[in-house]
Amino acid sequence: MVEHKRPDILGTRRKKEQESKENKRARLVMSQIFKEVFSTKNGKVVFNELMEMCMVFQTTMTGNSYTYFNEGRRSIGLEVMMMREQGWEQEVLLRREEALKNLTPKNEEE
Is the distance from CB of 38 to CB of 47 less than 8 angstroms? Predict the structure, then answer.
């Protein structure tokens, strides 16, 4: 008789949760770097120039295929802006997750 090994669903889920946590931490670190760089005098000049180049505060609709190109530029600008502003939000969320995990009874984790 062939024995079938059951998949380790909990182990797989824990691995994905750990990877997700590591990604969040990496994004937090990168966000803090963005904030640090763009808070300097020259960083503010560069940030404002990037926002202009990426058309963040302008309309991107042209009525032709350039709209898609402009929306791509704007998307990058918005991502840079979010990275600069996101540090505190991510830090609060990570600390909240860790606090909730510490409150979870041990028998529920298994």
Answer: yes
Tokens for 33?
């770097």
- Within 8 A by CB and 6+ apart from 55, the residues are 70, 73, 74, 77
pTM metric for this prediction: 0.59
Half-sphere CA count of 65, side-chain side, radius 13 A? 0
Rounded to 5 degrees, what angle do the CA atoms 91, 29, 37 make?
Answer: 110
- The token duo for 62 is 């042209």
Per-residue pLDDT tens digits of the chain, which is 110 residues long: 566 666 666 667 777 777 787 888 888 888 889 989 999 999 999 999 999 999 988 888 888 988 999 999 999 998 898 888 876 666 666 667 777 777 766 555 44
| Torsion sign over Cα 81, 33, 15, 101 | negative
DSSP H or E run through 83: helix 66-103
